[in-house]
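REQUEST ID: PR-0412
SUBMITTED BY: lab tech R.K.
PRIORITY: routine
TASK: structure prediction, single protein chain
INPUT:
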Amino acid sequence: MLLLIISSLCALPILLKIAAYATPAMRGRLSKTISGLLFCDLLIRIYCQQEVPFHLCAMMEGVAILVLWGRWQWGYEILLFFGASGAFLALLFPIEAKESGHTIAFFVRHFFIAFTPIFLTLHESARPRPNAWWKSVAYLLPTVPAVGLYNAFFDKNYMYLCELNMPYFVKAIVLPWPYYILEGFCILLALSFTIAKIVKRLDAKKERRPTILIMTSKGGGGHLTAAKAKIAEMKEKYPEMAVIEKQPFAALLKIDIWAFAQKTGNTKALTFIDNAGRKYFAFFIEVGFFFYALLALRKHKTTLIIDTLSFGAKATIKAIRYRKWRYKEVVLYEKILTELPTEKTENFFFYLARLSSKDRPYFRLMTTYPLLKEGETDAAFWLKHTGLSMENIVYGSLPVRKAFQEYADKKRVESKKIVLEILYKDSKSQGITEEAASFGNFVYEKREKSLLITLHPKDKVAMLMMGANPQTEAMLSYVDHFIQFSQKHTQKNRKDLLFIFCSTDKGLQEKILSHIKNTKDYPASLTIFVLPYQDDRVLAPLLHRADLTISRSGGLTSMELFLVATGSIFIHKEDKKFTMPIWEYGNFTYLAAKKGAKLISMASFPEIAGDYFTKGAADRR
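STATUS: complete
OUTPUT:
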């Protein structure tokens, strides 16, 4: 008997493995053969042994015959959630076989009852319907009172409703009659629910496509913008692969003190947060990031990780190395440098310098050419600041949105008109824009959910964009400067346009509108468009056309300015000792060297940008 139990349990995976390599036609013949075998066994039990098919195994045998022959959905669900569990228990505890004496037939019957739903699930694409795990049990419930009445009239024990036929150690832990029937029903529901979860997990594993995992953060906005641009690029380049965005920074910290410091212009706090993270919490950040990366790699069939974060390289590579050692998986890893590379890019370089000699072969840094000192080489720059060799460095296109790539290094045509369609998600934001613009004399076309703005060659165009978390005081101060200079230096036929980009959900648009409305003797030559954030199809051509731009020197903003800006570039700094974070100053030095950018503040605006209003045309590059 023990030999038969072991043989049955071992034969099940072997037969399933054979079925996996069989052709569809062969599997069809196997189904018909098993169905015929079970049908013969059922006939023998009914006619030769004079047995009524009211036992659970007999009922499931009949259901298996129908399912194997005709692929009936309801029968498959009953077998999967009910029949397979009962058949396995019977194989483990073959009490009925000992009593009846038909040992071989008993094991063959229960073996194929257990085999049928597993075979159909794994190799015939059979799947239960939603909520089938409890509905299949509900289908069988009416049989219980019917069989109970039959037992009462004919003194039988079908379905073991009158006495439990199980080993003594099992009887010792179950409730007495009739409560064990209810107990068995609850166990059946639990087993059915578990099987449903297993099948669902199997589906999820089967449906997993090769995945590109993009790790980013909403801190600062630039990381997320770079990630979105990369997601669009990867989806276009590899449509057959899944592209998934993860934000481990948000998942681990769940706080937004970085954004708060940016909004208040507290550059000292920004620097402190970065320094504290590097000096005191680097180890804990890496440990947390390691487990996050390990779980992400386990959940997704990852072939490539693209990372826009300053931290996490060492931890991610450790997770990749573990997966390679444990599961023989090969995962490529690329980190996108979301700052322009200078000696000031400490927020990235600190973590890259921590990579060991065993880590570096798994790592590639996607970047652009660094700002070098006189006589310095690329290889010397990267080795000094990151410890990486040129084998780890990949120079490529900057991680900006598609429209910025199209305008990269494009010459400005002075005589060309530019038409911009400003889109709105809500009427409130559009109303604010129209009311603010109504104080100027510029003509534009109103539409239902957009504005059509045509920029003529002689129009003076300025942009004010201070990132995802703009400082309100600075924004209002620059608006004041534009109004005051326009009042003092109004020229005949001159039209000044100021495009301000800011979020719609932080009240800044309303404050700017209120500022405009409360201005005495507002200059009609100045039209201010207070706009919600727009996509790259608006920003790229506008930045390319702008005569003057005031912005922060965040990584992605600096890259966009570097690629497409043709007018004067002014980078905002605070009127205090800590004017800007060191990496942003690094971006500025890059723009200053390559594009002639200048620093500007609320106090220095008249001195730095005064020529823009007094000259007939802006200096253009």
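NOTES: Residues 251-255, 617-621 have pLDDT under 50 and may be disordered.
REVIEWED BY: pending
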